[in-house]
Design goal:
The chain is an alpha/beta fold. Helix content is about 50%, strand content about 10%. The protein has 2 domains: about 190 residues, no CATH class; about 160 residues, Glycogen Phosphorylase B (Rossmann fold, 3-Layer(aba) Sandwich).
Amino acid sequence: MRDNALAKELIAMGHEAHLVPMYLPLQLDEVRVDEATPVFFGGINVYLQQKYEIFRRLPRWMDRIFNGRGLLRSVAKRSHLTSAGEQGEMTCSMLRLEESHLGKEVDKLVEWLERDGRPDVIVLSNALLAGLIRELKERLQVPVVCTFQGEDSFLDGLPDPWRDDAWEEMGRRVCDADALVSPSRFYAGMMEERLGLAAGEIEVVPNGIDLSGYEVETGGDRIGYLARMCHGKGLGLLVGAFIKLNDRSLKLAVAGTMGGGDDVYVAGLKAKLDKAGLGECVEWFPDLDRAGKVKFLQSLAVFSVPVTYPEAFGLYLIEAMACGIPVVMPDASAFPEIVASAGCGVLVESGSTEKLAEAIRGVLDDPARREMGEKGRRAVEDRYHVGAMAAGFEKIFGKVVSQ
């Protein structure tokens, strides 16, 4: 979503920009900026070419069959069935790309990028793609900007020996980039420490959203959650807090995506709510489109996604703020630098169901609740909109191109 919004805004500013999907087709709740662009390094091709020599020698027309969008989406739904060891092996192969068996995939990407003339700058949307930096710079002679978007959670979930190998290799590879960008000061500092980079080496450009359609509506009456329906995003904590509130006059609304295996987790939460006699007080809204998402947010009285891991930014928070909804978020990760500076809600002890329930009740009963929401909207209009994000990247692009 961030990359699509950035590309659209850069085009609106008069630049030429293309959004190039990697591994899988993009899953967006808005119109994609460049529908004609094919998927590169398709997940099926990458796996087969790395594992079996015969697939490295297949003609490209056969590769395109494996890159079919429907087939890739079907495989994505089963991604949770891939072993942790295989994920670790493929991650390290992508970071050591010139040592892998994926030369054919590199050639296809480079040839496509050269088709209409070499780009002035290439942006890698996350540092897990840092293995491409050397190849792209050497073969295209253009600067490469690498952004960070929450890579730590994925890497820390890999088994030994892949986890440490991937962290070490990423630390080496990102140093080849002409600029490194993080969406928050918190995440920049954390990644500088974990990758052994100098303090201040990673620049900060906050994520931003297209405000079209996001309007402030008053009168919402529900506690709301909008993120992936999984443990890491703290959905279980929010359900636990709702049970602790034990107030059948309150309603909880849960929206977001469901990845592989999330259905089992959600079923467990529903059973827990039913046991507490609150199942009928909770509504579930999976996979909303953009218009549905805005309508959902506008129906809320308070918003919370009590994430349990080091969140790099949290675009869902900005979306809630854009609709004028006061927020209750963990006093951790990137949230203090967003919520505290905006004055748009309350920060609570991370991981505490009791503190979360108390804070939600406090916001619901606070006469200044509407004012909190208004402050959040002003903060988005000031610094978390797509225009501000694009201007920040444009400044970095100008610097690396001139160098």
